[in-house]
Amino acid sequence: MRISVDGPSVVFAMVAVVAHGSAFARSEACHPTSEKQISALFDRWNDSLKTGDPQKVVANYAPNSILLPTVSNKPRLTADEKLDYFKHFLENKPVGTIDFRDIMIECNTAIDSGLYTFKFADGSVVKARYTFTYAWNGHKWLITSHHSSKMPEGN
């Protein structure tokens, strides 16, 4: 859908913004959080990996989230697609550790980006970049997007 604005309608929109504050003002209350609480969300996700149960891993993701996984070329949009990915990913018992991170917190959203390492039961190791974005759903923090990619220069 394309909306065209010109002439008097633009002036009206500008007056409305000035009169009522930012056009993007939020009416929701911001859930208080800290870097420590956001970093603990990775631990929650990693602990769900350790269970070996893909349902528990997928429970960390918001219904309309996206997973761009480490060892698959296919974006995972639905819970079923995420379950399929984690069913195979969990077969070799991955355990992740954070090597470097940067956390940014906004009103009811947070971004945790950095580098992590996965160690697997067969002794293999995958170093990767990651970004988790989170949103507060009124009850708990959920992953809204998760991007992970192997380091391009190897280990």
TrEMBL record:
- Annotated membrane-spanning segments are none
State the Gene Ontology terms under molecular function: calcium/calmodulin-dependent protein kinase activity; calmodulin binding
Q: Where is the Calcium/calmodulin-dependent protein kinase II association-domain domain?
A: 35-152
Q: Which domain of life is it from?
A: Bacteria
Q: Which InterPro entries match?
A: Ca/CaM-dep_prot_kinase-assoc, NTF2-like_dom_sf, UCP028470_steroid_isom-rel
Q: What is this protein called?
A: Calcium/calmodulin-dependent protein kinase II association-domain domain-containing protein
Cite the source lineage. Bacteria, Pseudomonadati, Pseudomonadota, Betaproteobacteria, Burkholderiales
